[in-house]
User: Which sequence fits this backbone?
């Protein structure tokens, strides 16, 4: 999961993040600006509050609907799903807090876990540390990368791919390794 793309899979599929709040933000701002001029306790203020609440609900519903559709799309052809174990609350405290809240990453992971449970698909969370710094092809630590670096290039084996796809492949590798160790024990 990331900010360039909502999800990058180990198969190389990258899914763009729709911007639910940004689309309706103009309308929301207009309604909220009108609200401040209404007298407290008046019927017009109450009606405007209801309109604002409906707009927020519409944004929330479209986001949740998209999350369910994406979860079903990802689970459809998969036998196992692995995701990074990320603290999304701390993501929403950074510079990109509004974008992170708009994406709803935490809600998506919960929905994905539920869809996996309903479709009897194996779901697990793996350690997030160093997924973009490890080569998924040979396992070499390639060093710290800044967020501007969007291409993964391994100096050892020469493997080159997009950074998010390489991280997704590393998450898959970690998940499969953990699952194999569980079955052997």
Assistant:
């Amino acid at each position: 999961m990331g900010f360039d793309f909502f999800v990058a899979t180990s198969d190389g599929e990258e899914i763009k993040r729709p911007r639910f709040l940004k689309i309706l933000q103009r309308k929301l701002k207009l309604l909220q600006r009108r609200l401040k001029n209404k007298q407290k306790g008046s019927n017009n203020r109450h009606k405007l509050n209801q309109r604002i609440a409906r707009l927020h609900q519409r944004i929330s519903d479209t986001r949740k609907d998209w999350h369910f559709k994406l979860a079903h799309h990802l689970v459809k052809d998969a036998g196992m799903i692995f995701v990074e174990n990320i603290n999304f609350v701390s993501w929403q405290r950074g510079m990109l807090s509004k974008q992170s809240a708009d994406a709803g990453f935490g809600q998506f992971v919960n929905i994905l876990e539920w869809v996996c449970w309903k479709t009897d698909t194996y779901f697990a969370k793996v350690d997030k540390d160093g997924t973009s710094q490890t080569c998924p092809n040979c396992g070499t630590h390639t060093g710290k990368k800044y967020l501007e670096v969007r291409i993964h290039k391994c100096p050892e084996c020469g493997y080159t791919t997009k950074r998010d796809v390489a991280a997704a492949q590393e998450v898959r590798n970690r998940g499969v390794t953990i699952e194999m160790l569980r079955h052997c024990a």
